[in-house]
Amino acid sequence: MRGEGRGRCRILTGGRSTVTRAALTAGEPLFGDRTRLTLASDPGTSEEPVGHASDEGSVPLPQLRLDDLLDELQARLDAARTTRDRVHSLLEAVLAVGRDLELSQVLQHIVEAAVSLVDAEYGALGVIGEDLRLSQFIPVGLTEEQVKLIGDLPSGRGVLGELIRHPEPLCLAEISEHPASYGFPPNHPPMHTFLGVPIRVRGRVFGNLYLTEKRGGQAFDAEDESVLATLAVAAGVAVDNARLYAQARLREQWLAAGAEVTASLLSGSREQAVLDLLVARAGEIARADLTVVALPVPGTEELEVRIASGLRAEEHTGLVLPLTGSFVGAAASAGTLVTSSDVQRDARITAGPPRWEGLGPAVAVPIGTAGGRVRGVLMLARAAGRPVFDADESAPLEGFAGQAAVAMELAERRRDSEQVALLSERDRIARDLHDLAIQRLFATGMTLQGATRFIDHPEAEERVRRAIDDLDETARTIRATIFGLRSREATPSAGGLRAQAVEAVQRAAAVLGFAPALRMSGLLDTVVPAPVAGEAVAVLEEALSNAARHARATAVDVSVELTGDGTGERLVVAVRDNGVGLPEGGRRSGLANLADRAVALGGEFVAGARPGGGTEVVWRVPLTDA
After folding, report:
1. Helices in 549-620 by DSSP H: which ranges?
2. Do the first three CATH levels of 271-400 and 494-626 match, i.e. the same topology?
3. 587 or 608: whose pLDDT is higher?
4. If DSSP codes are grouped into helix, strand and coil, which group holds residue 296?
5. Which residues of 122-155 are buried (b: 16+ CB within 10 A; e: fewer)?
6. Are 21 and 12 in contact (CB under 8 A)?
7. At what angle do helices 589-600 and 530-546 cross, to 10 degrees?
8. Is the pLDDT of residue 334 over 50?
9. Beta partners for 172?
10. I want to staple 311 with a disulfide (CB 3.0 to 4.6 A). Which of 238, 289, 353, 547 is the partner?
11. Homologous superfamily of the 494-626 domain (CATH)
12. At what angle do helices 222-266 and 271-285 cross, to 10 degrees?
């Protein structure tokens, strides 16, 4: 149809008929008294009258041609109105997907808007993961019962994978006829028509929109593709905004958690308390279902799970795992962050008991390095079926793990400072004992010895001489104590039994989370032979380890004493706790080892429940037979 005319009157020419637009628009009658209507002839010919109206009668006009023109005009008006409504719907959809800042809500609204715009029965949005498979799949149009019956959601095979491999709009009249068609799982509703477009965020493909089954049995057309592609552009912007918002919020949360950890450190909290706080905050911010901290076992190529919190945590706590064959070991060996989309089926996990049931995505990051040594590993895992840890979520973990390393470094430095203070105090005590106590005892003994010649009564003289002997024995005991204190200061790694017992208790404090009470008495460094001292330290370490692993105690008392009359002295090592007691039917290989050590030295070992609750183990060996 083309138009010709002058001024406001525009002539629409169709076939051989001419009608003024002014008459159509103004609502004037096309045929009045004595009005001539002519049909345009071919170019170069003149118009010929085809009829006229008079007072006496009228001549019929070509009503059919006029109806065709009006129908065509109405069709074009309807098409313009439809286009206008679709543009309005597209604008409303763009506003809807850009209104939210929560990524999950944004993705849901994108799918719902796409289904509405192209009048599809089913729609979905698939988020592409790092492995070029669908890490998230958000369907629309399926009921919860249908989703459960279908089972696992698509991972990116078939036609869906075709769009991942070739991120260009794809329109199909019949899905099954495409070469990449993989078929549908059982209980899946039938689908034939298909339209898919990629969603790009800053030039990278974020995911794909999938629409199927256009209502009315029609196929998707080029206009549907154009509308959906426009929505995909707006969706990319909305997704980017939501991700930026999520990143900013995550950074804020990590900073707040770091500040809390720093405040805990500055307040003098124990290392265990700081690690507990790190685990709690990391699991909360990363929305993890299981959080684990594993620390190296000194002198070995193994890691011990010190803390586990969350889903089936009891199956992880206390595990000792090798570097090779464990997920935390893989992070420690690599010295960098490692991820897994399904930790249950991760090929790197070959050691340890089955413990991953119900878990899926996981991430592990080493906790700092000092001289090439990893201080520990922080691992987070989510329940099976939940989204994997993407780059935006994983990146802050390395910084947070660095915060954990700082916590452990500060705790270690604080222990070193306390040790230096302890050694300084021991040195002062040794000087005071030597310069004051021993000299005074010696002077008192000399005075009493000189006074014996003035004592006439034999019994009184005997008592004074016994007092002089007691003073000499006391001076020897103090000298032995001074020697032990100073030898501990000079050679910490090769000290006597006292020094080694202190070291064992200090190591146990790091595992227990509190310092056990230690009591020592007797000439432990001078009377106890080195082989017996070594056995005693081994017994003490094993008993403290059992208390830390199994007792769940809040207080532990340790005593290392010499008992007897000097000719039949015995060394007694006792460890008492207020925990849950000895487990019924549990493994007791450690206790059997302690008993064997006692029997080998001619002694005895007793382990049992305390009257007020808890456990008491006593290791007793004679010194005369050693």
Report:
1. 589-600
2. no
3. 608
4. strand
5. bbbbbbbbeeebbbbbbbbbbeeeeeeebeeebe
6. yes
7. 160
8. yes
9. 194
10. 289
11. Histidine kinase-like ATPase, C-terminal domain (3.30.565.10)
12. 170
- Confidence category of residue 372, pLDDT binned at 50, 70, 90: low
User: Would you kindly state where each structural domain of the chain is located, as residue ranges?
Assistant: 2-61, 84-246, 271-400, 494-626
Q: Would you say 40 and 59 are in contact if contact means Cβ atoms under 8 Å apart?
A: no
pLDDT for residue 461 = 82
Secondary element (H or E) of residue 7: none
For position 195, what pLDDT does the model report? 93
Question: 107-111, 189-193, 233-237, 365-369: which has the highest mean pLDDT?
Answer: 189-193
Non-local CB neighbours of 506 within 8 Å, separated by 6+ positions:
415, 515
For the record, the structure tokens of 231 come out as 């929505």
Per-residue pLDDT averaged across 554-583, rounded? Answer: 82
Q: Which of 92-101, 216-225, 226-235 has the lowest mean pLDDT?
A: 92-101
pLDDT band at 77 (very low <50, low <70, confident <90, very high): confident
Distance, in Å, from the CA atom of 131 to the CA atom of 283, rounded to the nearest integer, reads 24
Nearest CA to 359 out of 296, 292, 302 is that of: 292
Task: Give the chain's length.
Answer: 626
Give the C-alpha distances (Å, rounded to integers) separating 439 from 159, 426, 475, 479, 581.
Answer: 96, 18, 9, 11, 49
Indicate the pTM of the whole model.
0.52
Q: Is the pLDDT of residue 29 over 60?
A: no
DSSP assignment string, 149-190: HH-SPP-S-HHHHHHHHS-S-EEES-GGGSTT-----TTPPP
d(CA 405, CA 391): 22
Tell the residue number behind the tokens 């899946």, with chain if given: 188
Residue 215 Cα distances to 93, 512, 521, 562, angstroms = 19, 67, 91, 92
- Minimum mean pLDDT range among 26-30, 230-234, 309-313: 26-30
Kindly state the helix (H) or strand (E) to which residue 431 belongs, with its residue range: helix 391-432
Over the chain, what is the mean pLDDT? 77
CATH code for the domain defined by 84-246: 3.30.450.40
Domain 271-400, classified CATH 3.30.450.40, yes or no: yes
CA distances for 94 relative to 9, 100, 139, 233, angstroms:
40, 11, 19, 9
Q: Residue 179 corresponds to which amino acid?
A: P
Which one, of 391, 387, 396, lies nearest residue 285 by Cα?
Answer: 396
